[in-house]
Amino acid sequence: MVIKNNIITVKKPPLFSFAECLWFLDRNYDDCAHTVKQDAVWKALQLGEENYLLKIYEKDKTIKIEVVVGPASAKSKKLIESFVVEWFDLNNNLEPFYKALRKDKQLSYMYKDFYGLRLMGITDLFESLCWCIIGQQINLSFAYKLKRRLVERFGIKLEYEGSLFYIFPDFKALAQASAEELKAMQFSSAKAAYLINTAQAFSDGLLSKSILQSLPDEESRHKLLTSFRGIGTWTANYVLMKTIRDPNSIPHGDAGLLKALINHDIIEDKKDTQKIKLFFERYKNMESYIVIYLWRSLAIH
User: Hey, what CATH topology would domain 2-90 get?
Assistant: First the structure.
């Protein structure tokens, strides 16, 4: 890391494309969690007790992180760099994955077409779980509308040069919300209860990112997550993939994933679990990455 004034410079890792990551963040959905404009992504976040607005872009074969709003001390810049490294999955060595991909006759085109795409994460566990609950059994466009309503009502708002940027509400804010408030935003009764119960679990110290990370394996993490109401198998697997970054995590049953497997003639029927199992054995310890690339393929198939 190199720091100059309010700009942090991070060296790009091998097998990385900022453009591909930016594409993922800007897929024509109204995502209030970040804003993509002028070949940069703007991100508001809270680190400790401080609120920040970051502008992240590529320049001179490096990643630049401009601290637009917030204190720019050496300590805060290290926290900011750690956040961006985790968000973009910059420390992950993709060479084993790319080696397997190049050998795959059905999917080798991805090496060139999606070169450098990283598994863009959701670093905050509470936000990740809430997003999964919000999206249950509805289309993505409506899910993003509900997310925006929730964030604008309970989150933190930063204003910069006439534009508004939002930080996802922490669990303390949602633990105090009422089901009636959420239902007025078009959340179902079940989703309202799940969101509030999840926030309460965090408030009571029963669930946190550190608790999950302290568990010995994916199975025990999955078991803990699914012990809470509203967190099923798909949600647990998604969160383990996007937030805890378990490399073996597969959101089995995901409609997009199944469609991509059919598109590539890997399976003929969505219920062909044996063929699905055999396919993922090609990517042992890299399952989460091939899932991301299969999802990416839906944009061209």
Answer: TATA-Binding Protein (3.30.310)
